[in-house]
Each structure stands twice: as C-alpha cells, then as structure tokens.
Amino acid sequence: MVAGHSALTAFYVFCAFILGLVGAFFFVTRRGKSRYFACAEYWMYLPGVEMPEENDIMTRVIGRNPYVHKGRQTIGTAEGLVFSDVRLHIALVLRKRNALAFRPDVFDSAAEPTAEQLQLLDNANAFVKARFVSEDVLKDARHLQFLPHLADAVSELGEGQLIFDVVAEKLMTRAELSDYLRKHAEVSGPDFHTQVVWRAGIDSGYAETRGLVKVGHKELRTPNTPSDQRILVVAVLQEAIRQIWSTPILPETLEIQAFDDRFRVVFEPGRDKFTTVRVLRLKGQ
User: Fold this and answer.
1) Which of 79, 82, 113, 278 is the most exposed place for a label (fewest CB within 10 A)?
2) Which residues contact 162 (CB under 8 A, 6 or more apart)?
3) pTM (2 decimals)?
C-alpha cells in the first residue's frame, strides 16, 4: 500500500515537472516576441469648450472635403470607414482640468513652439483628442490618410488654429496643415508623419525618431555620437524611416546611401520603446 502511494506521488511530481517545463517554455517564447502596437494621436486646440457635432465632422471630412486633387477626393470609402472604427477614439479635453496638456513645450517633447504657437496655446480652452490604436497588425495606412483630414475638419468647425501631432511631437498651425493638404493628395507617408530629433550633450548626442509607432514599429535611437556627425546620422535615419515605413517586419540591416557614401544600418531591438540603430560606413563601395 505504501509502495503504491509512493509511486502515485512520484507520478504527480513528474506531471508537475513536465507542466512546469511547458509553462516555462511558453513564458520564455512569449516574452521573446514583441507585442504589436500602433498608435497615432492628434490634439486640435480650440478657443471654445465644446466639440463640433459628430455629423458635421463626418460631413466635412467625407462628404464635403475641400481638398480635391485632379478631380478625385482625397478621402474615399476606405478611409471614411476609419471614422466608425472601434480603434478610433475622439474626446474633448478641457483646459481647466488638464492645464499641462496646453503646454507641450514644458513636458518631455521635441515640440518647440514659436511665439505665434504659444499665443494660440494661451488662447485655447479645450482640445479635441483623436487617437487611433491598434494591437493587430495594420494592413494599410488608411488611418494616416484620414487623421490629418479629421484634424483639419475639427479645427475649422471649432475655429481652432493649432494642432499637435502627439506621436511625431510636432506642432502645426491650422493654416500650415490646410496648405499641406491642399498641395498633397497622399498624406499617409513618412515625410508628413515623422521626424528625426537630435538630443544634444556637451560634445556628443544621439538621434531619435518620432512617428514610427504610427505604423507599428518601435522608434529608432542611435548610440551616443560625436556632434560633428549629427547631419549625417539624421539623414541616414530619415532614409531608414522611408525604407521601413511600409514594411511590417523590421529587417536586421539596411544599406543606405547618403552624401555620396554607403552605410549599413544595423537594428538591435530592445526591451523598451526604442530599437537601437548602429550606422556603419561601408568601405570600398
């Protein structure tokens, strides 16, 4: 009887051991995989404290969009569906409850407001926040075509004059945005939605991207780099952004030409929100 009990106990211990190994395997493999996350967000600062009516916004963006290029509307049916997508969230934020959000220059942001933009921030009493978030791999960039037009429409209807691209950390006046939409039919590309910023130290610094998370990539960051290489490093990162913008999976390396030289860009994904980028000059090319 004792022998049978011991055998049964040993069996349970063995099963527990196997289950533990299986659990550890799944834990390690899941940790090794980066969870997909894409986010784009705009704040449209308004002088009033009310959000324009949803139907008016939808009509202005889709039905009566003033930006027509070669006889074609810039927001079609596919882009218009973003308005009803559950991943899009639109809300009104009041200044009296969130005063700091009306000074993006004082929190950790690359935004550097001009005197005109600071005055527009002072005149604002609310902003409309439009945020699109996806944890499923995006099949296209229609949300990036839609959101600038949404920002422009809300600003016009709410008599707002300033827009903050939260992810790219860029401020723009409504006049600047309107002028860009008037000149460009396609606005889902990286030139509008991203920037490269330089974080300066005493004799060195490093470059970081802003806006790649809009298409599901982590932002890029270089190691500490001598200040005299700033222009080169920024140019290489700008080209790297263009090459990976429509690629859902980050490559291990890229070859990029800049200033009559060729460079190898090596991507080293990290555990935080940045991917480390090493820029190596290719000799004999």
Assistant:
1) 278
2) 44, 45, 117, 120, 121, 124, 155, 171, 172, 173, 174
3) 0.85
Name residues whose C-beta falls within 8 Å of residue 200's C-beta, 6 or more positions apart in sequence: 227
Burial classification of residue 200, based on how many CB atoms lie within 10 Å of its CB (0-12 exposed, 13-18 middle, 19 or more buried): exposed
138, 85 contact by CB (below 8 A): no
Q: Show the 3-state SS of 191-231.
A: HHHCEEEEEECCCEEEEEEECHHHHCCCEEECCCEEHHHHH
- The C-alpha atoms of residue 194 and residue 146 are separated, in whole angstroms, by 16
State the residue range of the domain holding 148: 38-191
Q: Residue 185 domain-assigned? A: yes
pLDDT one-digit tens code per residue, 221-255: 999 999 999 999 999 999 999 999 999 899 999 99
Contacts of 226 (CB under 8 A, 6+ apart): 203, 204
Helix, strand or coil, per DSSP, at residue 254: strand
pLDDT of residue 6: 53
Find the mean pLDDT for residues 246-270: 94
Identify whether residues 203 and 184 lie together within a single domain: no
The beta-strand segments (E) located in 47-155 are 68-69, 72-73, 88-94, 126-134
Give tens-digit pLDDT for 37-46. 999 999 999 9
Looking at the fold, whether 229 and 130 belong to one and the same domain comes out as no
Most confident of 10-24, 64-78, 219-233: 219-233
**Which residue in 114, 111, 220 sits closest to 170, CA to CA?**
111
- 50 three-state secondary structure: coil
Domain total in the chain: 2
Say yes or no: 129 and 218 in one domain.
no
Helix (H/G/I), strand (E/B), else coil: 131 = strand
Residue with tokens 């930006």: 67
